[in-house]
Amino acid sequence: MAAGWPPVDIIVDILSRLPVKSIMRFRCVHKTWSCLFKSESFIIKHLETSKNNGMSFVKYRNSIYSDNNNTLRLLNDDTYEDCSDNFPITFKSCSGLVKVVGSIHGLICLCDFKREVRDSLVYGSKIFLYNPSIRQQKLLPVSNFTRPKKKDVRVGSVALGFGYDELNDDYKVVRVASLRFNVGGEKIFENQAEVYSLKMDSWKEVGLKDCVNLDFLQDQACVGGAIHWLASKREGRFMNKYNLVVCFDVSTEEFRWFQLPDCVVSVGEHRLRRIFEHKNSLCLINISWVDYFYYFHIWVMKKYEVHESWTKLTSAACYGASKKLLGIGIYGELFLQTYVGSDFESAASSWDYYFGDSNDFFK
Question: Where in the numbering of this chain does the F-box domain appear (predicted)?
Fold first, then answer.
């Protein structure tokens, strides 16, 4: 080492605190640095440091007129102001509309979510991974999902999830389809599930025995190394309300599910139910709308998979125009999308359910 240079461990510690954008620029400083940035030990150290620095929110803007106007931006977790340049999305969707499935370690999973023709979401939909720091994207290969050899097969719903396999250091995408077909005049329902491995760059089918229905428009919640969705279970000819939580263990690639407790699902008339991750815990929000007021009842599972640990944080009301719940922040803020004018002219605001302060941040 040249005289005057600090010790190697100090240099590594300093570099691990830099944003990815700076690290990508510094690859050309020295061959040793370029090799360091690719090493597994440095990547792990940088990820751990990034976790301690808080989180950023992904702001995605769709254009219904042109794929060229679809952009991503990152928002600061304290001020909700833009902390990055525009990240243009060159992904060509069938409908011009793209949904953010989830994000982990700076990787963002997006998909073409509008179903133009029957079964398009299951048999040929587009999914891709995007790294905004280096502005690279990867279109996932076409699924080898095989249609069941039965007549009149229809797709009831499709759910997607994006998670990280810590045991195998792999990123995975899971897709679950609820199928319906006729056998002897009787309607039969079953699920098909598959998982994509980034390391293997391929899909494979996984088992899901119970017949559940997952809403493809709802969000996922990643907690405890598993992806979670709200689900309904078929009982005879009818589906119950979304009173179940279906879990997919990203490492073992196994499904399990548990019933939401009565204290959570039986309080009031709820038009909507959403699940999120909040401070490494499952967070459930029941939503109702009465006399132009939106009511939010917020629950948290304080001990993972311990049903008795479901605790109600608060109930709150918000007055105003039609709103969509986007998520919950690390400080307990609710992120709401307010529709103004046409459906496509929308803004979003953060609203602290403890104090009722509103702060518009999507413009």
Answer: 6-46
| Run of H or E residues at 102 | strand 98-104
Handedness of CA 161, 218, 349, 304 (dihedral sign): negative
- Summarize the confidence of residues 119-138 as an average pLDDT: 69
Mean pLDDT of 3-28: 76
How many residues are there in the chain? 363
pTM: 0.77
CA atoms in the 13 A half-sphere facing the CB of 245: 29
Residue 106 to residue 269: CA distance in whole angstroms: 38
CA nearest neighbour of 230 among 216, 211, 209: 216
Residues 253 and 195: beta-carbon distance below 8 Å: yes
Kindly report, residue by residue over 301-316, the tens digit of the pLDDT.
999 888 888 888 888 8
| CA angle 38–42–44, rounded 5-degree value | 110
Distance CA 299, CA 284 (A): 5
230's enclosing H/E stretch is strand 226-235
* Cβ contact 330:280 at 8 Å: no
The count of other CB atoms within 10 Å of the CB of residue 43 is 15
d(CA 179, CA 212): 10
Dihedral class, residue 96 (left if φ above 0, else alpha if ψ from -120 to 50, else beta)? left
Nearest to 126 by CA among 99, 166, 155: 99
Angle at 288 between CA 282 and CA 293, to 5 degrees: 120
8-state DSSP, 270: -
Q: Which long-range CB contacts under 8 A does 292-301 form with residues at least 24 apart?
A: 292/319, 292/320, 293/317, 293/318, 293/319, 294/318, 294/319, 294/320, 294/323, 294/336, 295/268, 296/325, 296/334, 296/353, 297/267, 297/268, 297/270, 298/328, 298/353, 299/264
For the cut 60, the answer to whether the pLDDT of residue 291 exceeds it is yes
Residue 152 near residue 181 (C-beta atoms within 8 A): yes
